[in-house]
Amino acid sequence: MRLRRRGDRDWSRLLQALETISGVYDALNAVMGLGIDFDVRVRAVRAAAGLAGEGRGVFVDLGSGPGTSALAMLEAAKPSYLVLVDPSPRLLGVNKAYAVRPELCDRVVGVMEALPLRSRVADVAASFFVLRDVVDLEEALRESFRVARVILHVDLFKPWWMAQRVAMYGWFCIFIPLVGGLVGKMSSYLELCRTLIYWHGVEELAPLCPGAAAYTSLDPIGFSYGLLCLSETQKSGVSQTVTRDTR
């Protein structure tokens, strides 16, 4: 299976949009995530940390941006070291996790398709709602599998039923941009809407895991999932349970 690939010009527009909304990111995320966005991230991190085993370990936040997910890592896993990776120096400059715990964090400018990290350098590498943003998703997944023993990818379930899919598109492409327009960010949130073109279901991504893979719903609504993958060198501790979902 060949996953859809984003054009470089398209990616540049998206990066600019992400930088533009950084000041209102958390507030609008609370709207998009129905108030449970941060709890979803904490729950996912705890699951990944449990698979990684005892000890706080080294965590990598892929697409860290302003640091919302990195804060969830600090709260839920208390890592001994946290690497914050993002293609935007501007976003890393306002990363909240680095602001509160600079002695535990290292900021690294880089893209997921070519991570400037040694193989197996981390216990856990995680991304949160960024897989639709990368240029080459297959290469980004391979790189995440390369750098860590346990890999966590959090994203939205892609509904199988057309009515549900239309409702979700309406939420992200009409309602959220209108809310963003209240703070002058409508065009940026319309750019985020276009990432849904590159939206793949968890059942498409799980077979690409090199070791065992499993996913779980992270909220009572069945809105988001956490896909946990093990590297080839660590194949115990999680069963292959990825099946077609009816959301």
Q: What fraction of residues sit in β-strands? A: 15-25%
Mean pLDDT: 87
The largest β sheet comes out as: 7 strands, mixed
CATH class of the domain at 35-158 and 200-230 equals Alpha Beta
What can you tell me about this protein's structure?
It contains ten helices and seven strands. It is of the alpha/beta class. The chain has a domain at 35-158 and 200-230: Rossmann fold (3-Layer(aba) Sandwich). Helix 7 (137-147) links the parallel strand 4 and strand 5. Helix 1 crosses helix 9, helix 3 crosses helix 4 and helix 8 (162-181) packs antiparallel against helix 9.
Would you spell out the secondary-structure blueprint of this structure?
Elements: H1 8-20, H2 25-32, H3 37-52, E1 58-62, H4 68-76, E2 81-86, H5 89-93, H6 96-100, E3 105-109, E4 122-128, H7 137-147, E5 148-156, H8 162-181, H9 186-193, H10 202-205, E6 213-217, E7 224-230
Offer a quick outline of the entry:
The protein is of the alpha/beta class and 247 residues long. The chain has helices at residues 8-20, 25-32, 37-52, 68-76, 89-93, 96-100, 137-147, 162-181, 186-193, 202-205, and strands at residues 58-62, 81-86, 105-109, 122-128, 148-156, 213-217, 224-230. The radius of gyration is 17 Å and the shape is globular.
